[in-house]
UniProtKB/TrEMBL annotation:
Organism annotation: Ornithorhynchus anatinus
Lineage of origin: Eukaryota, Metazoa, Chordata, Craniata, Vertebrata
Domain SH3: 156-215, 226-285
Keywords associated with the record: Cytoplasm, Phosphoprotein, Repeat, SH3 domain
Protein encoded by which gene: NCF1
Name the UniProt record assigns to this protein: Neutrophil cytosolic factor 1
Stored SUPFAM superfamilies: PX domain, SH3-domain
Keyword Thylakoid: no
PX domain boundaries: 4-125
Length: 383
């Protein structure tokens, strides 16, 4: 397995939050070596503490031995009170800092301290509760003012998608769309909710409402894995369509196809069907807090009224008959492999029983007692 490292860090903007009290957090898009992209949120005080520790770890590169040897960028200390204006004015400095950080020698840019600081934390994934009096306010850094200098791995490029229908948001964390509107995808969540931005707005959008610009099919979509991955249902769901599955909390199933719209194909014994991925959890993991408390499963494309694509060809889809047919092959093979080697083959056992037993060799006295006179004479002469 290749070592983990960060390819690129980009400052997206900042958020003004009101829980537990008013404060500001910066939003960073972190692109890892496996091509995954994650959005993380950090207060400036955290960033400055990270910076101080980095200088202590590399005193030569921090200029503590000789100022001429410094390559770690400067970062001003936080103010006693940070308001919106100071938070906004600091964006240029942070954008340049993150760019320079990624261009430092590997021993610094890929050290555990850097990797751990920019890893996704549980609070990065937590969505604001709908009952909050004040929802977070998001301030995006305009694209034309972001650093355009590419690092050694190349600049980060967000994918552009098109909306196939109007989408009305149901919370402040979502983003409304109009049919035909173009958006940039910042993060593709496994739940089928994608974090997108368009002009001066950003928020969560169902992937089923979006289509790629270069064709109807997703190039990143995985192939089916009929061997299956073990998962556990953490929230029950009752099927609405014929090709969906009804499952109860706690049931063990296998995932055989992970689709980007958040509706995965699962297998229970020999039955298959679609099920919301956000209601599933990999077997063996500690039970996580369900995201459905903040929003439900995303709608499926088949349920969207007046969906219009710009592509002439329809999206390729595997039928449930095909899923079931290939799944049955796997389950039957597993049954054959689990049987004892001679089980179910009575012919072998009967053949072994039908073979005659070899009698024991008779003793010399028995032979002389039962043989003819001629044999007795020959036997006596041979002695």
């Amino acid at each position: 397995m290749a070592d983990q490292f960060i390819r690129h860090i980009e400052l997206l903007g900042f958020e003004k939050r009101f829980v537990p009290s008013q404060h500001y957090v910066y939003m960073f898009l972190v692109k890892w070596q496996d091509l995954s992209e994650k959005v993380v949120y950090r207060r400036f005080a955290e960033i400055y503490d990270f910076h101080k520790t980095l200088k202590e770890m590399f005193p030569i590169e921090a200029g503590d031995i000789s100022p001429e040897s410094r390559i770690i960028p400067h970062l001003p200390a936080p103010r006693w009170f940070d308001g919106q204006r100071s938070t906004e004015n600091r964006q240029g400095t942070l954008s340049e800092y993150s760019h320079t950080l990624m261009n430092l020698p590997v021993k610094i840019s890929r050290c555990p301290h850097v990797l751990e600081f920019f890893k996704v934390r549980p609070e990065d994934l937590k969505l604001p509760a709908e009952g909050q009096t004040k929802q977070p306010e998001t301030f995006l850094l305009p694209k034309d003012t972001r650093s355009s200098v590419a690092d050694i791995t190349g600049p980060i490029v967000l994918q552009t998608y098109r909306s196939v229908a109007d989408f009305a948001k149901s919370s402040t964390t979502e983003m409304a769309l109009q049919a035909g509107e173009l958006v940039d995808v910042v993060e593709k969540g496994e739940s089928g909710w994608w974090f997108c931005q368009a002009k001066n707005k950003r928020g969560w959008v169902p992937a089923s409402y979006l289509e790629p610009m270069d064709g109807p099919d997703e190039s990143e979509e995985q192939e089916p894995n009929y061997e299956g991955e073990p998962f556990v249902v953490i929230q029950g769901y009752t099927a609405v369509e014929d090709d969906e599955m009804t499952l109860q909390e706690g049931e063990a199933i296998e995932v055989i196809h992970k689709l980007l719209d958040g509706w995965w194909v699962v297998r229970k014994e020999e039955a298959t069907g679609y099920y919301p991925s956000m209601y599933l959890q990999k077997s063996g993991q500690a039970k996580a807090r369900s995201q459905s408390k903040f929003r439900g499963a995303p709608p499926r494309r088949s349920s969207i009224a007046n969906a219009k694509s710009i592509h002439k060809q329809a999206r390729k889809r595997i039928s449930q008959d095909t899923y079931r047919h290939n799944s049955i092959k796997v389950t039957q093979r597993r049954r054959r492999q689990s049987r004892p080697q001679n089980a179910g083959d009575p012919g072998k056992e009967d053949g072994m029983k039908a073979q005659p037993a070899v009698p024991p060799r008779p003793s010399r006295d028995l032979i002389l007692n039962r043989c003819s006179d001629s044999t007795k004479q020959k036997f006596t002469a041979s002695r």
